[in-house]
Specification:
Strand content: under 5%
Number of helices: 3
Radius of gyration: 30 Å
Number of strands: 0
Order of helices and strands: HHH
Distance between the termini: 70 Å
Largest sheet: none
Length: about 100
């Protein structure tokens, strides 16, 4: 009889220990870093898109002011480059 009680206590203790381990939250440090990288990539993408739009606007403004094609393309190029640089800074250095 004592043998059965000992096995029962052991099984009960083991079940409680396993349940306790399963209830503990898992570490999420890797997920957090991945989420941060995704956020950085999203912000970089937004920066590039903003740069494209600014380039379009700069070209339209230049054309509206009577500028020639070469000057307008240069302004568009500069605006897009600024957007790209900002995106690189965001992606590789993180948001500031």
């Amino acid at each position: 009889m004592n043998h059965k009680i000992g096995i029962g206590k052991f099984a009960c203790g083991l079940a409680i220990a396993v349940a306790g381990i399963l209830v503990l939250p898992a570490s999420s440090s890797a997920e957090t870093r991945g989420m941060a990288r995704r956020d950085d990539r999203g912000q970089a993408r937004d920066s590039r898109q903003d740069g494209r739009q600014e380039g379009r606007e700069a070209k339209q403004d230049c054309r509206g002011d009577g500028g020639n094609g070469v000057e307008c393309r240069g302004e568009k190029h500069e605006a897009k480059q600024e957007g790209r640089e900002e995106a690189r800074d965001t992606k590789y250095d993180g948001p500031e």
